[in-house]
Amino acid sequence: EDQVTQSPEALRLQEGESSSLNCSYTVSGLRGLFWYRQDPGKGPEFLFTLYSAGEEKEKERLKATLTKKESFLHITAPKPEDSATYLCAVLTGANSKLTFGKGITLSVRP
Amino acid sequence: NAGVTQTPKFQVLKTGQSMTLQCAQDMNHNSMYWYRQDPGMGLRLIYYSASEGTTDKGEVPNGYNVSRLNKREFSLRLESAAPSQTSVYFCASSEGVPGKGYTFGSGTRLTVV
Question: What are the residue ranges in chain B where pLDDT is below 70?
Fold first, then answer.
């Protein structure tokens, strides 16, 4: 059974204080690892897809990396508007079902 | 704007009542999904439809039924609501291949009293 574990559950940062969010996974045949952002009261919004170990993708202050066992979402010099819940999900097997982690709630204080 | 539309946004039901959550997408996606999201549990798959005319159970299907009405629409029905079904329900769609993953709707917040 595919398992996705995100840590920490919650993270509080000061504006400008860089940090990383972790997503570790145990799956058979990873086809893709996805990062989403979810704001309160809204549906998750796609950020990145990573396909293979060593791959990196960037968007503004966010950079996602992937190894064979985990993915990191690095946040450089965060701003209060980066406050949200960040979800990690894996795609495995022949179908198109995503398995999600429980998410990491990030709060960035001014 | 293109995307996934869910109705209603909020609903309160009494135990034992039935209701249908509606979902429609206008991106010509093949696959559609229903998830529930509960505090501390994350997103859990209820049912999915890989293509028009097919539906399959996900992780937590008990107490729910689905209908893939056509390529655009995928509804979720609660036949006899229970307090344990209090949750936020999200519909999503995808092209069915790795890429941008899913596009989610804005959710339906359901309370069963």
Answer: 1, 96-99
